[in-house]
Every structure is written in C-alpha cells, then in structure tokens.
Design a protein that fits this description.
With 120 residues, the protein is α+β, with helices and mostly antiparallel strands. Helix content is 42%, strand content 21%. The protein has a single domain, classed as Nucleotidyltransferase, domain 5. The chain contains four helices and four strands, in the order H-E-E-E-H-H-E-H.
Length: 120
C-alpha cells in the first residue's frame, strides 16, 4: 500500500502534467499549504527560475494576520503574490493547485490573486 506522501505526489504530478500541455509558455502559480501557513510561487518553467513568491510568513503580512493557516491569510497572500507578479512583469499564469482540492484556502488565494489583477 502506498503512503499518503506517495499518493499526494502522484496527484500533484497528474495536475502538473495537464498544466504543461496547456501552459503555452506562461509562468506557473504554484501553491503549497501546510497546517499553519500557505505559500505561493510564480515559476518560469522554461528557465527553471522563481519570478515572485509570497507566504503567510512574510514580514508584510505576519504582523497583521491572526493565523497563517486561515482563509483570510490565504486571501492576503493571493493579493501579495499578484502585486509582486505585476512588479516582475508577469500578467498571465497557469494555476497549479498541486495535490490540493480547489476549495478553502486554495480557492481563497486564487480568487484574491484574480481580483488583484493576475489572469489565469
């Protein structure tokens, strides 16, 4: 029987494989969430470089967040990643939710990033 980590990697690989087919040389907005925090990166897969990143541990957010693992924190991280992407010259991305379902914190981050001007 496979471990939960192996199953999670398998799900994430399936999602990432589908994204590669329809990315059209766009950067990828990748999400990682733990029990206490949420992280977002904009990655250029052609160069293998991170263009922008944000998390609930950033100094800008940590002081005004009650908890890093809440839906509110995810929304703030979404706004921050969108502004940092704009500063890096990225307007369109593909959303890589990884092995996580599109609800709760992942959905809050994605919707906040869209509202702040990131297109995906």
């Amino acid at each position: 029987m496979k471990s939960s980590k192996q199953l999670s990697e398998r799900r994430g690989g399936r999602v990432r494989g589908r994204l590669r087919k329809r990315a059209n040389d766009r950067a990828r907005l990748s999400i990682f969430r733990s029990g206490q925090h949420i992280y977002a990166q904009i990655i250029d897969d052609t160069q293998g470089a991170t263009l922008a990143s944000a998390s609930s541990l950033d100094r800008d957010l940590k002081s005004k967040l009650k908890s890093g693992g809440s839906v509110d924190a995810a929304g703030e991280v979404g706004k921050l990643i969108a502004t940092r992407a704009r500063d890096a010259g990225v307007a369109e991305v593909v959303f890589d939710r990884g092995p996580y379902l599109y609800h709760g914190r992942v959905k809050a981050l994605a919707e906040a990033a869209r509202e702040a001007g990131l297109a995906f």
